[in-house]
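Students often ask why we bother predicting the structure of a whole assembly rather than each chain alone. The short answer is interfaces. A chain on its own may look different once its partners are present, and contacts between molecules only exist in the joint model. In this exercise we take two input lines together and write out one structure for the complete complex. Read the inputs first and try to guess which parts will touch.
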Amino acid sequence: DAGVTQSPTHLIKTRGQQVTLRCSPKSGHDTVSWYQQALGQGPQFIFQYYEEEERQRGNFPDRFSGHQFPNYSSELNVNALLLGDSALYLCASRNPGTGSVDEQFFGPGTRLTVL
Amino acid sequence: AQRVTQPEKLLSVFKGAPVELKCNYSYSGSPELFWYVQYSRQRLQLLLRHISRESIKGFTADLNKGETSFHLKKPFAQEEDSAMYYCALRGSGGYQKVTFGTGTKLQVIP
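Now the answer. The structure tokens for the assembled complex follow.
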């Protein structure tokens, strides 16, 4: 099991463009969360997906949207990119149905640079 | 609203000295508290959670609801403990979001 995987590793976009980031959860996990981590900050929760629906959302504008597929993989889409969207985007997966073993596993992240 | 505060950006200690990384939280219910660690060039990973009341790599953390704190402690620091440490909170109930602090960089001086 490769654990949580994310693609691409790095991405450079210009202001106003749109971007799609991808995440495959750890085997056996059905819940995916996305985080934005700006330089020098902790991860900030964007949203969480379970059963292909957005279940929780943090304080991010509608430009940030997502999707979860039947195989539990997920995409994060950001429209109308701003310079301030430059950050490391982390995906994390977990399986809340496993009782006490409710650990969130993180991917390596996608580094997005907006010029 | 839930909030996690880690007052120290950087904590430098000598090898063998005790370590205490501070974490305070704000939440109006019964939260779950976690410590995550990120070693150099590695992924963010769970270190420990308050409900397990366990010691991992010599680290412990006790939830103090009166002081709304969840400080991370280790009696004798090792060089391999050098890393970024993040305190995190998840609210009670299903599908709750996780709020992270800004992190503390622990530097253990040989």
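Check your guess against this: Chain A touches chain B at residues 3, 31, 33, 35, 40-45, 48, 50, 55-58, 90, 96, 100, 103-109 (CB under 8 Å).
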